[in-house]
Amino acid sequence: MSSKKIGFWSVWALGVGGIVGGLFPALGVVIQIADAGAPLAFAIAGTIALITTYAYAKLSVAHPCRGGTVTFLNQAFGLGLFSGTLNLLLWFSYVVMLSFYLQAFGSYGISLFTESTQPIWKHLLISLAILGTTGLNLLTANHIGKSQIWIVSFKLGILILFIIMGSSHIDISRLAPASVSSLQSIFAGAMVIFLSYEGFELIANTAEDLVNPKHTLPRVYYSVIGFVILLYVLIALVTLGAEPIEQILAAKDYTLAEVAKPIMGQFGSVLMTIAALLSTLSASNATLYGSARFSSVIAKSRGFDGSEINGRDQSSIGLFITSGITLIIANFFDISRISTMGSAGFLLIFAAVNLANARMHRYTKSKQWISLLGVGICLVALGMLIWFALQTDPQTVWVLVFMVGVAIGIEVIYYLSKNRQLHL
Question: What local confidence, expressed as pLDDT, does residue 1 receive?
Answer without folding.
Answer: 40
